[in-house]
Amino acid sequence: MAAAVPIDRECEVVVLGGGFSGLSAARALARRGVDVVVLEARDRVGGRSWTESVGGLRLDRGGQWIGPTQTRLQSLADELGVATFPTHTAGEAVELRDGVRHTYAGLIPTFDAPAAADAVEAILDLDLAALEVPTHAPWEAADAGRLDGTTLAGWMDDHLGSPVARDLLSVAVRGVFGAEPEELSLLFTLFYLHAGGGLSNLVRTTGGAQERRFVGGSQQLANGMADEIGDRVVLGSPVEVVRFDSDRDCGVTVTARRPGDGSWSVRAERAVLAVPPVIASRLDWVPHRPALRDQLAMRMPMGTVTKVHALYDRPFWRHDGLNGQLVADAGPLSSTFDDSPVDGGRGVLVGFVAGRDCRRFERDGLAGVKAVLEQLGRAFGPRAAEPLELGVQRWSEEAYTGGGPVALAVPGALSTLGPALREPVGPVHWAGTETATEWCGYLEGALQSGERAAAEVLDALGARS
Ligand SMILES: Cc1cc2nc3c(=O)[nH]c(=O)nc-3n(C[C@H](O)[C@H](O)[C@H](O)COP(=O)(O)OP(=O)(O)OC[C@H]3O[C@@H](n4cnc5c(N)ncnc54)[C@H](O)[C@@H]3O)c2cc1C
After folding, report:
1. Could you give the CA distance from residue 66 to residue 78 in angstroms, rounded to a whole number?
2. Would you say the CB of residue 376 lies under 6 angstroms from ligand 1?
C-alpha cells in the first residue's frame, strides 16, 4: 500500500489538468453535487486553448476552429454566449511548389491536375478504409495487427505513384497531426480520421474542421467552465506525485506544488488525469507506475507544431483576390489561413510550421523566423514579409503540453496496448482529447473525454454509496 502523507485537502474527486477535458469532467461532476478539486499547473486554464492579446487583438495560440458535428463545443459556446464567425474563404489560395507560386480555387492545389486527382482519390480511399476501424476500439478492427504494423507512409508507397500527389497528402497530414506520414501507425491514422469524419473533413474550411472561429477566442470557453467550478480550480499547482494502490480501492493522494507555499497533498476517492499521455508519464507514481498505460504513453509522442501569427494594418490579400490560404511543399510554413478579426478591420495571417519543418525551424533559430517572413512575402507579396508584429508559439517548448496539436500513436502501439488508453487503473480514470472516440485531438474530443470520465467516476462513486 502507498505510504501515508500529510493531507491538506480531502475531496471526492481530484482532476489533474484544467484544459477542456479536465474542466468538462469537473463541471459534470460538480453539477451532480460531487466535491471536486481541479489542479492546474499553469497560471491559466485552457491548456492547448490559449487566447492572448497581441497588438490589441485576441489571438488563439492553440486550438481555435470549430466545425460541423462538434455539437458539445457549439452547445458550450451557446451556453456561455460566445459567438462564432466563418473563416474567411473568399478568393483564391496560393500554392508554393518547387519555389514557384501558383494560385488555385477549391480544396486542393490543382497546378498538377493529375497529381491533384491522385491525391483526392487517396484521401477518399483513406476515408473509406477509416470507416472500417471502430473508434471506440481500433484494436478490434479486422486486420488491426497488419494495419498497425505499417505506417501511413507505407500505405502511400502502395497507393500513390506521383511524388507531387504524395507531397500534397504529406502537407495535409503535417497540418492535421504535426507529424510525417512515416511517424504514424496506419491503424491510428484510420482511427483518427474516422473519429473526425474523414481527412476530407479535417482539411476543409467551409463544411469542415476549420469552418468557424470564436469571437474573442476559444479560451473563453475554458474560462467559462472554470468560473462555474469556482475556487475549486486551483491554478499554478503542478501535480508531481500520484499515490494509489491499484489492488485496493482506498483512494488516491496527489502531491502538487503550490505557488509560494512549497507543496500540498490532496486526497480523493477518485482521480481524473486530464493531461496528454506523455505528461501523465512524467509524473512520479507511488508505489509503481500504471504499467500498461505508461508503456502505451511511451508509444504516443506529441506531434511537433509551432503556430505563427503575422499582424498587418488590414487584410490586404483580400483586395488581391486571395483568401489567405497557403499550401507549401517546403517549409517553414506548410499552411496559412486568414485569421483576421470578425470585422476585418485588421489583417492577420496564421501559419503552421509542423512535423519535419518544425524540427528544422527549431534548429534554425532566427534564420527560421526570417524564412517564415520570406515565405509569406513570396506567397502574398512584399507587404506580407513586413508584418507589424510576428507571434511565434512553440508548443514543443511547453512543459505541460510537450508538443501538439495532439499525441500520435506509432506502429504497434494501439494493437498491443490500446485498451490501456481509457481503462481505469484502480481509482485513476483517464480523460484528455487523446482518449476521445469522437473528434480525438480536437476541442470537441476533449469535452467528450471529460464527460465520459465523469460518467465513469459517477458510476464508481454510485457503486460505493
Ligand atoms: C497549435 C494547435 C492548434 C490547434 N487547433 C485546433 C483547432 O483549431 N480546433 C480544435 O478543436 N482543436 C485544435 N487543437 C487541439 C486542441 O487544442 C486540443 O485537442 C485540446 O485543447 C486538448 O484539451 P485537453 O484538455 O485534452 O488537453 P490540454 O489542453 O493539454 O490540457 C491539459 C491541462 O493539464 C495541465 N497539466 C499538465 N501537466 C500537469 C500537471 N502535472 N499538474 C496539473 N496540471 C497539469 C496543462 O497545463 C493543461 O491545462 C489545436 C492544438 C494546438 C496545439
Report:
1. 13
2. no
CATH of the domain at 366: 3.90.660.10
Q: pTM for the whole thing?
A: 0.97
How far away, in angstroms, is 322 Cα from ligand 1 center?
31
User: Distance between CA atoms of 20 and 219, rounded to whole angstroms?
Assistant: 9
Residues 312 and 395 in one domain: yes
What is the extent of the structural domain holding 145? 119-202
At 371-424, the pLDDT tens digits run 999 999 999 999 999 999 999 999 999 999 999 999 999 999 999 999 999 999
Output the residue whose Cα is nearest ligand 1's atom 4. 63
- Angle between helical axes of 219-229 and 20-31 (0-180°, round to 10): 30
- In terms of domains, do 211 and 309 share one? yes
Rounded to 5°, angle at Cα 74 from 36 and 85:
135
Residue 39 confidence (pLDDT) above 60: yes
Q: Are residues 279 and 330 in the same domain?
A: no
Write the CATH number for 40. 3.50.50.60
- The verdict on the CB of residue 435 being under 6 Å from ligand 1 is no
CA of 156 to the centre of ligand 1 (A): 30
Q: Give residue 1's pLDDT.
A: 46
